[in-house]
Amino acid sequence: MHDGPRWIARILVAPQRSRAPATLLAIALGACASADTPQQSLAYERWARCSSAFVQLERVDLDGRISFQYSDASTRQQVLQCLGEAGRGGPPLPEPRGIRPPGGP
User: Fold this and answer.
1) pLDDT tops 80 at residue 5
2) Per-residue buried b or exposed e for 75-96, using 16+ beta carbons within 10 Å of the residue's own CB
3) DSSP symbol at 98
4) Helices 73-87 and 38-50: crossing angle, nearest 10°?
5) In the 8-state DSSP scheme, what is residue 61?
6) What is the pLDDT of residues 34-50, one digit of tens each?
7) Does 13 have pLDDT greater than 70?
8) How many CB atoms lie within 10 A of CB 9?
9) What are phi and psi of 89, to 5 degrees?
10) What span, in angstroms and rounded, lies between the C-alpha atoms of 80 and 59?
């Protein structure tokens, strides 16, 4: 036989215990995924100084490499020069990557 209310309590509480580790793991992984690396933070700071109306940030890799889309070669060169100047005297980052938009001019 069953031991009354204790048996029911064990059934109701047991699934909650088994979900706790999975919930904690999901929260921890979510926090890790949303935090930038120090290199990414530095890259975003430099991008904020150098972005212009005719370029668009595509992504910043974990190592801090900036990838951006540009509309023409002179705009690309201006952004590359600005990022180079913004990086003088600071920690180095990988060379930025200028990308022509698909189907663009």
Assistant:
1) no
2) bbebbbebbeebbeeeeebeeb
3) E
4) 130
5) -
6) 799 999 999 999 999 99
7) no
8) 11
9) 80, 0
10) 15
Query: Reading across the β-sheet that carries 97-99, which strands appear in turn?
Result: 55-60, 66-70, 97-99
pLDDT of residue 9: 52
Q: Locate 91 and state its tokens.
A: 């920690």
Largest CA distance in the chain: 83
Helix, strand, coil: what percent of the chain each, to 5? 55, 15, 30
CA neighbor of 57 nearest in space, from 69, 48, 46, 49: 69
Domain ranges of the chain: 1-35, 38-99
Q: 28 versus 90: which is more confidently predicted?
A: 90
**pLDDT, tens only, 46-101:** 999 999 889 999 999 999 999 999 999 999 999 999 999 999 999 999 999 999 98
Residue 57 to residue 65: CA distance in whole angstroms: 11
